[in-house]
Write a structure and sequence with these properties.
This protein is α/β, with parallel strands linked by helices. It has a single domain, classed as Alpha/Beta hydrolase fold, catalytic domain (Rossmann fold). It contains eight helices and eight strands. The strands form two sheets. The chain has a six-stranded mixed beta sheet, sandwiched between helices. It is globular and about 45 Å long. The C terminus is likely disordered.
């Protein structure tokens, strides 16, 4: 493996490797406490183009890495699914495989089907937009970063809690991609959330997932069975 693509060994301990019934490689992290009869949320993370391949490791960067760290793992106990897109391909070619993998895992593990959350960055942001539009009833919340979708399918996204993020100076994926999706959803009657980082470029994963604006708190409050699109709790002052 290219040494620049390696992830820390401790991370591989927390994420078990698997292959879906139709051949899609993935890693899955389970909550620490599975002894109770509770069902747990599932976070689905779609990586960017730089993590494509067949090593089934490098896709654990960014959010999967963060949610495995003790502070975040205790704060947000959940299953985390990190599929890997094949080399030289795109998520838009594998949306049905990801959807079916979520269904498969929900049958095999104590996953709360009303709390499946979809998020992704860059190429994975595009995948997030497109999969949410194709399967709006499957996800309790959607968080696309630095991606874009098809405004013609905005109507399918009006009823799902959605919070999009983009850097104003993104040279890889123009910020207009997110702006036009948000405008199209609003025109169709939806109330999406949108955060645009005025000084940022393409790399916005850390400032999105780790910042104090509460996107993870907001995401984990969403449920298809209960409150939807509620505000995140106030953040502590530092």
């Amino acid at each position: 493996m290219d040494p620049h693509r390696r992830v820390e060994p401790w991370l591989l301990v927390h994420y078990q490797a698997g292959t879906s019934q139709d051949g899609l490689q993935y890693r899955l992290m389970q909550p620490l406490d599975l002894t109770s009869s509770a069902r747990w949320p599932l976070v689905v993370y779609l990586h960017g183009s730089g993590e494509r391949g067949d090593d089934n490791q490098v896709q654990l960067r960014d959010l999967p890495w963060q949610l495995a760290e003790p502070h975040w793992r205790n704060r947000f106990p959940c299953f985390v699914l990190a599929p890997q897109c094949p080399r030289n391909d795109h998520w838009t070619s594998h949306l049905e495989r990801v959807s079916q993998l979520c269904n498969q895992l929900s049958r095999d593990y104590p996953i709360d089907r009303d709390r499946i959350y979809l998020t992704g960055y860059s190429m994975g942001g595009f995948g997030t937009w497109h999969l949410a539009a194709a399967r709006p009833d499957q996800f309790a919340a959607v968080v696309p970063l630095a991606g874009g979708g098809d405004p013609q399918h905005a109507a399918e996204l009006t009823s799902i809690p959605l919070w999009a993020f983009h850097g104003a100076h993104d040279k890889a994926v123009p910020v207009t991609e997110s702006r036009q999706m948000i405008a199209a959803i609003e025109e169709a009657g939806g109330t999406p959330r949108y955060t645009e980082f005025s000084q940022a470029g393409h790399g916005i994963t850390r400032r999105t997932y780790q910042a104090e604006h509460g996107v993870l708190e907001w995401m984990f409050q969403q449920s298809r069975a209960g409150a939807r699109n509620v505000d995140p709790p106030p953040q502590p002052k530092h």
